[in-house]
Design a protein that fits this description.
By secondary structure, this protein is α+β, with helices and mostly antiparallel strands. The chain has helices spanning 13-65, 73-78; strands at residues 82-86, 91-93, 98-99, 102-103, 123-124, 128-136, 143-153, 160-170. Strands 1, 2, 5, 6, 7 and 8 form a six-stranded antiparallel beta sheet that branches. Strands 3-4 form a two-stranded antiparallel ribbon.
């Protein structure tokens, strides 16, 4: 009786496990890459929305400050140092923000950039906090610098992102 040699062309279990491990590494890398790309895209979109909100605040300030007949003309130069503007009605919204030293709205300068000052007008869409800070240009009586601060929770990590735009106005 003669024995025939069998030609087995199948894969062994070890080869299959190695192939599955390689496939798992490749798919994991692809997932991480796509996830990072989605987060970066979301962060870019949030930044664009915040920039539009800040530009809208500055545009409203520009419109009010260039029209002496506007009912909010004097208010934009005399309201507390921290406020924001309702863009639909161009009305000034103030907030009572306090810290351990007292009302922040009464303090200009270093308090304008404190974390609590960002919430002066509360959230927009539960995501963005807006505050407009106004300071007199040193050595002048009719030149003002308006700082628009927008802050929101970052989609990447546990930090906050922010946008800050500055506009200088000469009051006639």
């Amino acid at each position: 009786m003669s024995m025939k040699k069998l030609n087995n062309f199948g894969d062994t279990i070890v080869e299959v496990l190695i192939a599955m491990a390689i496939l798992g590494v490749v798919l994991s890398a692809a997932f991480v890459s796509v996830n990072r790309s989605v987060k970066n895209n979301t962060q870019s979109q949030e930044h664009s929305v915040a920039l539009k909100l800040a530009e809208g605040q500055l545009e409203t300030i520009r419109e009010i400050s260039s029209d002496t007949t506007n009912p909010n003309y004097n208010a934009v130069f005399t309201e507390p140092h921290m406020f924001c503007l309702d863009q639909a009605s161009a009305n000034i919204i103030t907030a009572s923000i306090t810290d351990s030293t007292g009302p922040i709205l009464a303090n200009a300068g270093s308090s304008l950039d404190s974390n609590t000052a960002y919430g002066a007008c509360g959230g927009i869409n539960s995501l963005y906090s807006i505050a407009v800070g106004r300071d007199l240009v040193p050595g002048t009586t009719k030149q003002f610098i308006f700082n628009v601060y927008i802050r929101w929770d970052s989609v990447i990590g546990t930090t906050q992102d922010s946008v800050n735009l500055v506009y200088k106005v000469d009051q006639p």
